[in-house]
Amino acid sequence: MTTSALQFDSAFQALTEHSPLRWQRRLFERLRCGEIPDVCDLPTGLGKTSVIPIWTIALARQAQDGAVTLPRRLVYIVNRRTVVDQATSVVERIRQRLLAPDGPTWSRHAETLRALGATLQGLTSTRAECLAVSTLRGELADNEEWKADPARPAIIVGTIDMVGSKLLFSGYGDGRYWRAQHAGLLGQDALIVHDEAHLTPAFSDLLHQCAEVQRRAGEPRPIRVMELSATSRNGRTPVFRLESEDEQDQVVLSRLDALKLLRLHKADDGLQGKPTEGARRAMQKVVELSLQHEDAQARVLLYVRSPEVAQKVVAELEDRLGKQERSRIALLTGTIRGQERDRLVSESPVFRAFLDPITPIDQTVYLVSTSAGEVGADIDADHGVCDSTTLDSIIQRLGRINRRGGPGRKAQVDVVLSMLDQSKDHSPSEIEEAISSTEAILTDWAGRSNGTIDASLRGLRALLDNLAEKLREKAFAPKPPTLALSDILLDAWSLTTVNQDMPGRPEVAAYLHGLTRDPPETFVAWRQEVALLHESEVDRDSLADWFQACRIEARERLRDRTDRVKKMLGELLKARRRTDECADFPVVLLNERGEADWSRLSRIVDREFKLAYRTVVLPAEVGGLNEHGALDPNALAAATDVADREQPGQRRQRWLLSEGRGGPRYERLVRSEASEVPQPGLRERERMVLHLPEEGADEDGDARYLVLLAEQSQSAIERAETASTRQTLPVHLDRIAGDMNRISQALGLDGELSEALELAARWHDRGKSRPVWQRYACNDDLVTPLAKSTRYLHGRALGGYRHELGSLLEATADSQIGNHPRRDLILHLIAAHHGWGRPHFEANAWDNTHSTAENEDAVAEAMRRFGHLQQHFGRWGLAWLEALVRCADIAASIPGDDSAATSTPREGHP
């Protein structure tokens, strides 16, 4: 491979279809040399998300030069308000081009793309694709590729909640099995890019605290943090920003000077008729100003602060224009379900018009948005109208109006001043004070320029540079107080096998977002199996098993303020009781730690019921979801269930299985499909008993189950312990040793550590040879023990036994391990490879082939060992080493030719 194949300009164009700007070349050179800026302060519209392809090319270039110092995983944090994140589009484009370099629309870049892909492929430890990706939504959502090979370059796009909770060993919905692995893979060898960092300063503080803790602990591959912001909160000189030479680029010039003329309006100016209440007058004024563009064939973007006002604006526009014109109006809020949100982006002609400002339109279109459209969306309006808000939000909104500039484009931006309560007995909130400060600043700027503010990027930056830092801070959204991390807190969170509430271990939300005064939120999803599982009286533990296996994913849920969720669900129940006064419905409640419980709709709407930060899973038949994907008590039709995945390589499907004298019969849960055999390429991932016939019964004799089928490789990633494939124990141990060696080599680990990891891999599953585990794996041939089976009994068949503990007891007695300088690490990795041993095992996990005293001594020593190793390697460093073994287990558990095992056991190894 020639160096010219990975020249930055050609590689950047191959991935993005754009020639790089000067600032992008400068950033590439810094990354190529291993220099990661702490802050990139760049104006909006100049392609901050190009950090993703720049990192991709820089990493490949380092690999080509034989000296990789950049982190192998890029974790791109998008604001949780984001409805349409540009980062996902960038990632999907990179993915498509690297995997299909000869694609018809980019085939001219095929040679460069092949070279780039081959170089990245050379970093991996497996034959997997060259780049792992996981994003918030789209076909790449929740595919979990990033957790299969720790040496493989990976891009993860996620929110603060999604990524931050995992970083703190408390991943929302993860359960004990995944918490340490996620923390290890996100907390080591990762570049965390915090986009729009000024909007979430508490999370910035948290990231820097974590990085400092890791530095002090001497962790092997500590995180690196890069903040991206178009709106700095203070006047300090950023580490990386535009330089004068960067303005020689025509694209930069056109965007810096894209003309936006901002005018201020009072809410009651020009309105006719009897005055109404302040918020209503402000809303009317927003509509009035937007309709000034009705004959201009323009794209008009209307911003308001709340979803309720946004819906009223849409209704008012429909009244003014006529119901027949509703197709020219679109609504964008953060409270719609992921499925409908994605459909809006891909199918709405109004939204598509804002994504493509060049193609002419026949009539003016209106997009009404909340803050969900302020951040991350690459939309470009001709004109804008908005209510008053904080200065940082005003700047974000301006970034979506005349975003790209161009000849003859001149945007009019109208801001309606707020109607805040000025009475003496009203104490303004912090947000009201920030809005008042913003209005004072805008009024001052307008007064200096005859009522019209130059709101171009260049003009706005000049105004901000001359604004006193104290005034700027007062006008920005209040920065919530942040909480300091402590060793005690981090140690408590790292005890991932302790599921119960524990003194001194708070939930992590306040550490992710600060002590915000924002009202709590609740998620809502709809599933058809809720009623089935309830009728079958499935217990809490089994319910948790099901929702751990068939997790609620982004496309299935919506989020809204807890008080609004309660109110609307209460109204939905009332609507149902109009036809059946006794109507009630079972619901599943999932907490932040993935634990599940049953409740009733009538109970959770009670005023005193705690619903904050929980996920409510409603039975699909209860309804409550309208055509736009919003929670709606008037929508009484059954909600669509979108839990199944159909993308190749990621498929998961729910089936009803009947087993009786006529043989097995499968019926698809959400479709009219039936089959006598499982779907090709899918294996059973989880099974819930719905009905078991009484012994000797002749009628109603079929056993009925709810089963989850998943791709074979996906099943191994989700839970290697019970991957649905047949592997004997010797073959599996040999395969994992080979995979472990390949991972160590790909990561460049030293010989002593690599040997320790291989020893842990070779011993990790020895405890599966016990008769109780072989019965669980449906294996009657105890002479040939299995490590993996195509079918398992319910987990209760193990009686609590943990094969890791059995493996640990055997390994403790091995002389080679006993004499190894990394003995403690080897034993810990064996104990913890399925999430236990951090720090404890339950009492019923004992191995009955050893004495009680031996079990107790091994467990007590495992607890002491865990504490010692955390001090030695650091919290995330130890979790990363655990993750390496588990990734090898995943690779060894993926179905394949058993003869492919390449590592021969050495003398003294099992």
- CATH architecture descriptor text of the largest domain: 3-Layer(aba) Sandwich
Quickly count the helices.
Answer: 32
Proportion of residues in helical segments: 25-40%
CATH topology value of the largest domain: Rossmann fold
Note the beta-strand portion.
Answer: 5-15%
Spatial arrangement of strands, main beta sheet: 3-4-2-5-6-1-7
The parts where pLDDT drops under 50 for at least 5 residues are: 1-5, 270-276, 897-910
Give the class from helix and strand content and strand pairing.
alpha/beta
Instruction: Tell me the span between the first and last alpha carbons.
Output: 41 Å
CATH superfamily annotation of the largest domain: P-loop containing nucleotide triphosphate hydrolases
Using the alpha-carbon principal axes, give the shape: globular
Sheet with the most strands, sense and barrel status = 7 strands, parallel
Number-wise, the strands total: 26
Summarize the structure.
The chain is α/β, with parallel strands linked by helices and 910 residues long. It has 32 helices and 26 strands.
Task: Provide keyphrases for this structure.
5 domains; 32 helices; seven-stranded mixed sheet; single chain; 910 residues; disordered N terminus; seven-stranded parallel sheet; Rossmann fold; 26 strands; alpha/beta
